[in-house]
Amino acid sequence: MMKMTGKAFAKKLFGAKYERLPRTLLMDVIIFWGLYIAGFQVQIAASVRILMINAFTAGVMWQALSSGDNAVELKHMLMLPQQPKEFVFSYVAALGAYTLLTKTGLLLAVLLAVSAWKPIEMTGMAISMLHGVLMAAAAYSLRKYWYAGGLWAAAIVSAILFLGNRSWFGLLLLANSIVSILILWKAEVYAFYQCESEKSHAIKQRKRGSLWRYFFRYLSRHRNYLVNTAAMWCVALVMPYFLREMAGLSVVPVGFAILSLNTPVCILLSCDRDLEQAVRFLPGQKGCFCVPYCLFIFSCNMAADMIFLLSWQIQNGGVTVLMIAGAVFFALQSAVLSVLLEWFYPIRGWKIESDLWHHPRKYVVPVIMLLLAGAASAWPVLLYVLLALLAAEIVILLFIPKGRS
Amino acid sequence: MGETLLTVQNLSAWYNVDSGGQLSQLLSPCALKRTKSRYSEEKMILSGFSFSLAEHEAAGLIGLNGAGKTTFLKVISGLLPTFRSENIRFCGAPVDFRKQDFKLCRYTVFAEDNSFSYFTFREYLAYVCAAYGKEVTDVPELVQGFHFEEYTDTLLRELSTGNRKKAFLITAFALKPRLLLLDEPVNGLDFQSTEYLYKLISGYKEHGTVLFSSHILESITLTSDRVFVLENGKIRQTFEGGQINAEEIREALHDENDR
Description:
The structure holds two protein chains of two kinds.
Chain A: H1 2-14, H2 20-38, H3 46-65, H4 68-78, H5 84-114, H6 119-141, H7 146-163, H8 169-186, H9 211-221, H10 223-246, H11 252-259, H12 268-271, H13 273-281, H14 285-288, H15 290-315, H16 321-344, H17 353-357, H18 364-378, H19 382-398
Helix pairs in contact in A: 1-5, 2-5, 3-5, 3-6, 3-7, 5-6, 6-8, 10-15, 11-16, 11-18, 15-16, 16-18, 16-19
Chain B: E1 4-16, E2 42-54, E3 58-63, H1 69-76, E4 83-84, E5 87-90, E6 93-94, H2 100-103, E7 106-109, H3 121-132, H4 139-145, H5 161-175, E8 179-183, H6 191-203, E9 209-214, H7 217-223, E10 226-231, E11 234-240, H8 246-258
Parallel strand pairs in B: 3-9, 3-10, 7-8, 8-9
Antiparallel strand pairs in B: 1-2, 1-4, 1-5, 5-6, 10-11
Helix pairs in contact in B: 3-5
């Protein structure tokens, strides 16, 4: 039964014939060799490496555990009579394998390619990966005692930071992994099932169907997206300090490009298949839906850019009209490109939301923005050209011959 | 019944087997240009499907699971580009299901729909009316008929399956498009609402044409002027007027099952 439960979840996550596995592993190998041959090397302290692997693995595992798609699968599985312990371990094993092979594997390939490592450190990294999975699963099963979970996580992060360079540190992680296994041994199956909230939100009676309101509701009901937006604002606050240290005024466009990295708001259609069907089926949605959506992303980007400019003015002074125009360009251009990508190439074939959040397509627009920012930093006059091109682009998009919509 | 509204001749529609989902084909413009050599990788759903709908009629589609009812409604709704047909005409002229002028003439209620889940019904209705450029008048009557008064200002995502279906049905009947497509409209509805829906479908002929799919024989016999029995992606039998009775249709479906 344990094998069958694990297989059922694994097939959902890796595809019916596990076709996703070889594809992902091939990608990891390509990335490893690409970076290794490029000869790009950085020095990374063992503690930082362990922290990165642990935090990334635990974060992805947590996302997988709290995924809405998994909740549906879990609901059907829980309806069947199960052996609780077997069920918990096969469920955690399937999600853990998914996390390690499809997500952490990529990080590991990058770390191994760009930094020097000894075989003993490799063992440490493997233990870290397992530890991340087990600890996230154990903490998730105890999430009603969130304060205890928080303290536990803080203690482990502190231990990694202060003791992570010691050769015996792997043993500490192993000991903590055993504690996690014991917690999972005692865990209730239903501790992993997140039932939908029955809470009904009182909505003020409105006669207009404003998409702005729709987008704000969407943003406010997704805690992950709010956290991401708040994190971007924090980055916007501190970034002027670092950019001034680096090269002064000319790197301001790089700041705007980095702040266009608020990717969760840019995958509205990819993550909601029914909404995508509806906007393709209703008439006039190229204008009615895409324009407000573009302006919404622009507002999110621009809010971060304004915080960045205010912080720059307070810390360094000298904010000019051209800088504001630059902010408008990067915020609007990235919004336009994001909406075009969502309309023409929405992300498909994802298994759970976590795939969507880490999909490489999400980073296409930020990379383009970074390249443009690099060029604008080198030749500031380019910004005028880019602004003119953006204006032309918008005119063309708004006046595309009407027809298929 | 009036003049011919929609004619479809020899329609074939398919899904890519390796696509990982039907929606993955929504926006693939090259799908229509595929050559026959690719057909081995495609799952044919409709094949040699021909039929016509008249103005001001209520037509029912019935068939076993997998017969192609939903696929056909998706083709007309412009959601499946992987199809070809010898001739498709709407009001006598060739039609592109994804063109704005056709979209403005039709509305579809899907069997399962969780779209615009952060709108309330009232907001959704206003949004759809704006998209169709229409002002609707008889909403209170429809809301009352479906016993939906309590839910007009609740987010669609917080409604039960049946109530969400009601929200889309009320929108459809308030909008009164020339061609109304309903995919399994009865599923999830309570008894009273089902009765009210039958009344609405029967009365829709005043405004336009309604084509709906159903597994429930009663819903077809009580409301339809014509019944199309689908089997393996094509229309096997058509019943009209006095021919429409539960026994005959049940027999046709049994034959289909035995074949």
